[in-house]
Amino acid sequence: MKLKPLGDKIVIKMAEAEETTKSGIVLAGSAKEKPQFAFVIEAGPGGRDEKGNLVPMEVKVGDKVITSKYSGTEIKIDGEEYVVVRQNDILCIVE
User: Fold this and answer.
1) Is residue 27, in this structure, part of any structural domain at all?
2) CA contacts within 13 A on the Cβ side of 94
3) R_g over Cα of the chain
4) CA 44, CA 10: separation in Å to the nearest integer?
5) Total count of domains within the chain
6) What is the CATH number of the domain that holds 85?
7) Residue 4 forms part of a structural domain
8) Structural domain of residue 62, as residue ranges?
9) Euclidean distance between CA atoms 95 and 59, whole angstroms
10) What is the pLDDT of residue 23?
């Protein structure tokens, strides 16, 4: 199944949470912090400003991004977990 986001929505796949700390301690599932790094899977055409002008997307498919903590709507499709966020929930692109 293919997802096609509308407006300024972006479908992202969150990066995996760290399993161990830098010192080598293995973390339990509940102790893992929710990752903020994600990869853009699909992006909508862009949103509209208050005058109705198209505001193009600043991210593209394949970009690695950092998102606001706990933002977006989590969905599960064909066994894969994705998050749908608005463009303004993307804090930056990692280069």
Assistant:
1) yes
2) 11
3) 15
4) 6
5) 1
6) 2.30.33.40
7) no
8) 9-94
9) 12
10) 65
Spatial separation of the C-alpha atoms in residues 66 and 90, rounded to whole Å: 6
Residues present in the chain in total: 95
Phi-psi region of 52 (alpha: psi -120 to 50; beta: other; left: phi over 0): left
- Give the amino acid at 6: L
Other beta carbons within 10 Å of 67: 21
**pLDDT value, residue 16:** 72
Which of 16, 2, 1, 11 lies closest to 60 in space, CA to CA? 11
Residue 1 forms part of a structural domain: no
Instruction: Examine residue 2 and state whether it is found in any structural domain, yes or no.
Output: no
pLDDT tens, residue by residue, 50-89: 999 999 999 999 999 999 888 899 999 999 999 999 999 9
Confidence (pTM): 0.77
What pLDDT score was predicted for residue 31?
A: 43
